[in-house]
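Anyone up for a design puzzle?
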């Protein structure tokens, strides 16, 4: 899977990444990826697994897997989610002085 990873690493803007996803994945696969990312973000934000299951209509098994990933101190997903959270907080602070 080295070639695929290298190709993804070469994408530097959202528009190109969107087009790449549209070319590689079906709309259903794109929705699955977006749902997985959303549930991981909710978990990272402290929302309970049961609340996520109820609100997103996904199984507890899928959510438990995400929680296990985030419990790992070396989780890249956790690091990316936290970096995104920090950026959003900084933007909010900049807007509100």
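Challenge accepted. My sequence:
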């Amino acid at each position: 899977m080295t070639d695929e990873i290298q190709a993804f690493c070469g994408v530097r803007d959202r528009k190109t990444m969107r087009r790449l996803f549209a070319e590689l994945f079906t709309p259903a696969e794109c929705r699955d990826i977006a749902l997985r990312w959303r549930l991981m973000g909710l978990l990272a934000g402290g929302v309970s697994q049961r609340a996520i299951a109820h609100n997103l209509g996904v199984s507890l098994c899928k959510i438990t897997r995400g929680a296990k990933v985030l419990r790992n101190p070396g989780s890249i997903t956790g690091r990316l989610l936290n970096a995104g959270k920090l950026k959003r907080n900084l933007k909010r602070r900049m807007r509100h002085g």
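A detail worth pointing out: The two ends are 45 Å apart (CA to CA).
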